[in-house]
Amino acid sequence: MAVSACYRMWLFTGCSFSVLTLCLCSLSDVTPDVFGGSKNGVVSAFGDFNADKLTDIFVLAASGKVLHLLQAEQELTKKTASFSIKTLIDGKNANATYITNVAPGDFDGDAQMDLLVTRKQEKQAETNATVSVQIYWGNSVTDTLDQYPFSFAEAFRDQPSVIDVNGDMIPDLLGETAEGVRSFFIFSPNRSYSVEKVVNGTFTAALDPLRIPQSSAFFDFNGDLVADLCMVSEKDQKLQFEIWTNQNGKLTWSRTIDSPPELEKFGRPSYYDLNDNHEINIILPGCSGHACQDSSVFVWGRGSWSKLDIQFRSGAESWQMIGGSSPMDWLNMPFTLRFGDYNLDGFPDAVAVLKAKSNETYAAFLLLNTPCSSCGNFSRTFELNVIDSATETSQRPMLVAFYDFMENGILDVLLTVYSDDAPELQALEQDFTADAYFLKVMVVSGLCVSNCPHSHQPYGVNQVGPVVRFRTTTSTGSSEIGVICDADLVFINCVAKWPGSVHDERVLQLFK
Ligand SMILES: *[C@@H]1O[C@H](CO)[C@@H](O)[C@H](O)[C@H]1NC(C)=O
Ligand SMILES: *[C@@H]1O[C@H](CO)[C@@H](O)[C@H](O)[C@H]1NC(C)=O
Ligand SMILES: *[C@@H]1O[C@H](CO)[C@@H](O)[C@H](O)[C@H]1NC(C)=O
Ligand SMILES: *[C@@H]1O[C@H](CO)[C@@H](O)[C@H](O)[C@H]1NC(C)=O
Ligand SMILES: *[C@@H]1O[C@H](CO)[C@@H](O)[C@H](O)[C@H]1NC(C)=O
Ligand SMILES: *[C@@H]1O[C@H](CO)[C@@H](O)[C@H](O)[C@H]1NC(C)=O
Known about the structure:
Bound molecules: 2-acetamido-2-deoxy-beta-D-glucopyranose
Strand content: 35-45%
Radius of gyration: 21 Å
Number of helices: 1
Number of strands: 35
């Protein structure tokens, strides 16, 4: 399935000096240069929409009625990135629903990015109203989306996850219908799909319901370089990580990992190699206590869960991960750690928005991945650094992600803040200047059907699931191996000074 020969890879390398500078570089606000006047909205996804190898940003605006594309216009020779704004989906066809999430992918295999859109009825973000799923086909000649979408006949319990079940380079979906049937929705090039119920061998009992918000992911669990599927389900209000390994091209249930008993509420799990041992870890943030006041992050690796020793303090204030709801009634925002190698030391760092324990203050934090000698089974932890503390209470950070604005391999920070009753974007540039090389890996389908127009490189659209392992040689001649996989969505983008580091420019799942 997922891995086959038709990937192309771009490796951009600069000069390689192995200077280990563990700096916490400063960030400067470059919002006016980067976004100009087009900074309203919530970031909902990243992807290269117009096939120019620059990552564009999908932004939801007008309470989820309108979807804009911020199209990256940067040339590698220019100092600053800039974006031009384009409306992809206009509210006039919204039919009294609002968009809750988008996920890019090439669902008909024509090498043009399409957009999967999930919608709910107005004002029901917090309830269990069903989700309708649509695909807006991309038009590679005009770089626009078809005005009227393809709609799924089924209503879904939650947004589906995008995976390539049958390895044909056309992404498929894993989801649960409103009736609770867990199924794969498999796409063919003729823009139709077939539904295949997920079955567990000859076991006939119903499968447990999938976790809402959807948290399943595609990653290489057993190190055979083939993507396996981790389906996250729920039982007795606890999470279960069901590992379905790929056995001769068929996803087969192999084991279920229960969440750590200490956790009572759960954020969204992530899947990264946190300690650089070439094995993907499951990273599960969560909390316990009646007000969710005791935050912790657990990591699954080598067959057991370890609790990371994180001090959720900064200055006099204590912080917690989960609590408070979205300031916007049309958008649900589960707690998520987003990863990228901020200081280029080969270990993925994270960003997250935390809430003060004592009041309703929110702040964006950088969680630096640092060694920990007293940490028992897992020798890494995270150290908190404030990125942006809301000095004005009217500016509440809501979402934070890594993004490489300058396409120079150095991660910058993209914030969405809630300001004057509306979300807006902020670009923070990192002023890292040490010599470093970076490896940017973009895994694409390589598909090009009949009409790749002249202005486009026929290289397809970002794929989900593939695992990439690579070996580099440092300036001292030692050889190192890295492994990355794009667990749950559509973009692999890797920055390495020492191999193994991962740059997370993936879709920010609003509902994940
Ligand atoms: C809105 O409804 C019309 C008519 O029922 C349908 O053709 C169109 O596809 C719908 N638009 C969306 C965005 O669902
Ligand atoms: C969700 O659905 C169940 C039954 O389908 C219902 O009992 C429950 O009240 C609903 N929850 C909300 C928040 O609407
Ligand atoms: C689309 O393709 C699939 C698989 O190739 C086939 O089973 C299906 O009948 C086709 N559907 C239409 C409407 O042509
Ligand atoms: C799959 O079936 C086995 C029994 O054959 C059962 O023990 C296991 O829990 C099932 N897995 C899931 C995910 O339901
Ligand atoms: C370390 O791992 C072992 C087995 O892998 C487990 O029994 C033990 O409880 C773990 N210790 C901690 C502190 O998590
Ligand atoms: C929240 O508490 C912190 C310290 O405990 C304080 O600095 C901050 O001003 C408080 N914020 C509000 C909005 O009261």
